[in-house]
Amino acid sequence: SSKGSQTYLFIHFSFIFILFFEPTVILRTTSKSVWATEFEPIELTCLIESISTNNPRIEWKKIKNGVPSYVYFQNKISGDLEHRATLREPANLLILNTTRSDSAQYRCEVAAIDDQKPFDEIVISLSVRVKPVTPRCTVPESVTVGSTTELRCVENEGYPPSQYQWFRNNEELPDDPKTSTRFINSSYVMNTDTGSLKFRTVKKEDAGDYHCQARNEAGYSKCEAQLMEVYDQDIMGISLKVLGGVTALILVTVGLCHIQKHSYCSCKDHRENNNKCYVLFYSFYFYFLQGHFRHKSSFVI
Question: Which pTM value belongs to this model?
Answer without folding.
Answer: 0.65
